[in-house]
Amino acid sequence: MSRILIVDDEQSMRQMVAIALRQEGYEVVVAEDGEVASRELQASKVDVVVSDIKMPGFDGIELLRFARENSPGTEVILMTAYTSTESAIEALRLGAYDYISKPFEIDDLKVTVERALERGELRSQNKLLRRQLSDRHKVDELIGRSPGMLRVFDLIQRLADSEITVLITGESGTGKELVAKAIHNEGGRSAEPFIVINCAAMPSQLLESELFGHVRGSFTGADRDKQGLFVAAAGGTLVLDEICELPIEMQPKLLRVLEDHKVRPVGATEEIHIDVRVLAATNRDLQREAAEGRFREDLFYRLNVIQIDLPSLRERSEDILLLAEHFLENIIAAEGESAITGFSNEVKELLLQYPWPGNVRELENAVRRAVTLEGGTTIQPENLPESVRAGGTRAGETLITGLRTGEFDLQGQMLADLDAATAGTGTDPGVIPDEGLDLEEHLAEIRSGYMLKALAEAGGVQKKAAAKLGMSFRSFRYYLDKLGLRDDEAS
User: How do residues 13-36 score in pLDDT, each as one tens digit?
Assistant: First the structure.
């Protein structure tokens, strides 16, 4: 039985509305002011509040705010004899379901209450469906339904119970640590320690002691024995994050530990046997680092037995709204009840259009900011970061495809254009110099040249320049930033 709370300082009005709604089969409780009503909302579940706006003390607007913060599943209908556009707009902005003016037909109120109950039920069902959908598209704390993420999920589940070393690669913010945690949690070591060390955050002179431990007196300041992380993670998993930053002098020592399953603390004479699964993560091309002498090739091959490559968010745009909904629910659950129920359609479009150079981490931060600033029930564009609000536009069905493949299509088009432009001039872009070349750097130079030329031809107007290259305004600005060519005075 649905529960309705009637709030009015006039006893006759309370009684009339209560009798009419009880006849419809509802459980009805009454309150003479906002303070009594707020206590009722805290004490028990209320499906719909029907409240007067003009009441002494704690009025209907204050009660609406209280309900949105403390009982977000409750729909609120406000009524008043003092009709004004301003108060109606304020009530609806704050999340009221509807606004009716006294005197009113009781049948109209009954219909409004029935529709408010239907909306509350629909919202509950949608929330449940979103949670069920999220559960079907997640592994541990990872969320996704794109082909790239489904392949990652499959690898996680296949590798979880093995002891094989895994190298996790991907851009910053894509969730490499979450992949490592999922491998740990899905496998037989889940009850044992899960320890992460960032190789870039630890001074090189301390890293060996941190990983392997040390004995008292082994160096200045070593006033006691210290257990290393390989021993602390016994039976569990040790994640070497940013492994590309591991000092070159440390790399042969790590290689030996991985091969022998033994560590020797700094200053010790005896080795300690370890039972630890090692996972490594990096946002750089480790094979290239090895080829250029910045990383030991034998250690690379020892770490890279199996590689999991996380796609960037712009390559998995099918997951953007799914992730945004997931972050919204988690943030609201962690920070307390909220009146926010979702994202406006305009916000959803902006989220899809933005290329997310900071990947999933940037998306989560954007949602957190919007939740903090939003005063209504639906997140609006003005509460997104400026960079997201300024997102470019795409036409029709190319919206998501362009975001995911724009970089590679642009590179291919540039090479094709260069080939056509140099045909018959004696310049062959397919000729590779004897000393070799850095292809990524070369392509970046080509991109830079085309973008500068397009800007010059467009008189510095970025939107026109982007159109000349078949790019969205957002992608054009993104590459300007990436290439260090951004001119904030251009538009």
Answer: 999 999 999 999 999 999 999 999
Burial class (CB in 10 A: 0-12, 13-18, 19+), 223: exposed
List of domains in the chain:
3-133 (3.40.50.2300), 144-311 (3.40.50.300), 314-389 (1.10.8.60), 406-483 (1.10.10)
Residue type, 143: I
CB-CB neighbours of 268 under 10 Å: 15
For residue range 227-285, list pLDDT tens digits in order.
999 999 999 999 999 999 999 999 999 999 999 999 999 999 899 999 999 999 999 99
3-state SS assignment for residue 241: strand
Q: Is 169 left (phi over 0), alpha (psi -120 to 50) or beta?
A: beta
217 with 267: CB under 8 angstroms?
A: yes
Any residues with CB less than 8 A from the CB of 347 and at least 6 apart, and which?
370, 379, 380, 381, 384
389-428: pLDDT as tens digits = 886 433 223 333 333 333 333 333 333 433 443 344 333 4
- How would you classify the pairing of strands 166-169 and 277-282? parallel
